[in-house]
Specification:
This protein is an alpha+beta fold and 162 residues long. It has one domain: Gcn5-related N-acetyltransferase (GNAT) (Aminopeptidase, 3-Layer(aba) Sandwich), CATH 3.40.630.30. It contains five helices and five strands. The termini are far apart.
């Protein structure tokens, strides 16, 4: 990244879906789970910009080039008694890692969380991901006493039908 290239973070809009989806595919390849991506541009557009938005996204640019993104949504903590924020995904292209883009994305999301009086920001990280050190350096702590579980679509269907 050139020394004079500014990092810009902005909310993603409907016209950004192709760029956002390309970055999502890159993230899935990095995480070695590209085969699990069933989303497409249409489902991303509907979920992020349709009438019942499920999440929000921000895009990071350096010198006009898209270099990263985050997708996040509100959750709620009964113990804190306030809303929180969950970062579903954050991704920075390899060629600009270590240049401040990841920190800029997280700071942007943190400002949104603060404006909304969020009591927490939470996210999950694959155990092998070297970004864990980056998050810990910024002050995040691993919640080793909690185990995340997931119901997939077929299990949701089965559970809902019981």
């Amino acid at each position: 990244m050139p020394d004079d290239a500014a990092i810009t973070i902005r909310a993603a809009g409907p016209a950004d879906v192709p760029v956002l989806f390309r970055l999502i595919r890159e993230l899935a390849e990095y995480e070695r789970i590209a085969h699990e991506v069933i989303a497409n541009e249409e489902t991303i557009a509907g979920s992020l910009f349709g009438p019942s938005r499920a999440a929000e996204a921000v895009l990071a640019y350096v010198g006009g080039d898209p270099v990263g993104f985050a997708v996040f949504f509100s959750n709620f903590s009964t113990f804190v008694g306030r809303p929180g924020m969950y970062i579903e995904d954050i991704y920075v292209r390899p060629q600009v890692r270590g240049t401040g883009v990841g920190k800029a994305i997280l700071a942007h999301v943190a400002r949104i969380a603060r404006e909304r009086r969020a009591g927490r920001i939470e996210f999950a990280v694959l155990d092998w991901n070297p970004a864990r050190g980056f998050y810990e350096h910024l002050g995040a702590r691993a919640m080793t006493d909690w185990v995340f579980y997931r119901f997939t679509e077929d299990r949701i269907r089965d559970l809902a039908g019981s």
